[in-house]
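Pilot study result, target chain (368 residues):
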Amino acid sequence: MTTDDMASGSPVLPPTRSRWARARRRLLRVGAILLALVTVVGGGAYLARDRIVDFAVRKQLTGSEPDPAYLADDGRVRILTCGTGSPELSKAAQACTMVAAGGRMFLFDVGEGSARSLNNSNVDLARIDHVFLTHFHSDHFNGLGAFVNQRWNWGATTALEVSGPPGVAQVVDGINNAYTLDIGYRTDDMAKLAGEAAAATAKPVPTPIPVGQDSVRVYDEGGVTIDAVVVDHAPVEPAYGYVLRYQGKKVFVSGDTIVTPKTLPAMQDADIVVHEAYANHMVERAIPIMRDLGLDSDADIAQGTSHYHADTIALAEQAQQAGVDHLVLTHLIPYVDNIVTRTMFVSGMSDKYDGAITVAQDGTLIVL
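Predicted structure:
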């Protein structure tokens, strides 16, 4: 200790303690500044709270506006996979494909979660006037009630037409009956909905295919034609796929089917084929692992479903034979949700088919 230090009357800190004291004082000053800033910002936010809330509400409302492109009459065809799952529980909505052409939107199957998926893609549900069901496995229609109800609540004024194989009236009438109480409550409470009560229900349109025919036209308006075609999903009979044509473009939506010569004409020279897909090579590998884990019920279901779904390799061969430009895989079994499993899913397909392959996800949009 120096003479000057002693004369000051102040204690002399060791060097380490001196540095810590200086750092502590700096931290306290920074903390005081931050506290002041938080106080100012918080006070300002409190005073402007109404404007902040209004801004948040406005952003929320404007962020979900319908995309007008789906209704554009511009000669393009837009294909949106709004449900790529299957009966298997997964993150995806169940079977649903939307095709927009000629200023109209058409829905092919409406499985659970379809309405939410369509809304997530900014589709105006109220402007979809026609649904085409492929068959009556529940994962292809069990979102219909919610879809009709949401469509009515958010602006539709006419009944939704639901075309499908014989049996469609039983399904649609059952759904209409299930919503009777809800419709009554809402029409009693809201005059606007009461005035548009026709849109609260669906109208079944049975479209039988005569014996000896492989297809029948079910829609022809505004330059858009849609044909129902027989597919093979035995023991489910009848089961349909649908061919949409517009401005020289051709889209085939398969529904559920094995790969069969029956669907070859529907696939022939198609620009897009949206086809169910079953990766047998993945399922067969998984079955013994399921059994080893004690998941015998899951293994039994996996073994019992492969015979009426489309094997990916056989599908690739038929797509090549038919001259399909672009194969879009949906109704994915097993469901794949990462780059590794998606790559595994299509393994071997490009050896058989030289067109484009898309493993669809909910919200995949393709424009022709």
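One observation from the pilot: Residues 70-367 form a domain with the Metallo-beta-lactamase; Chain A fold (CATH 3.60.15.10). A full batch analysis is planned for the follow-on phase.
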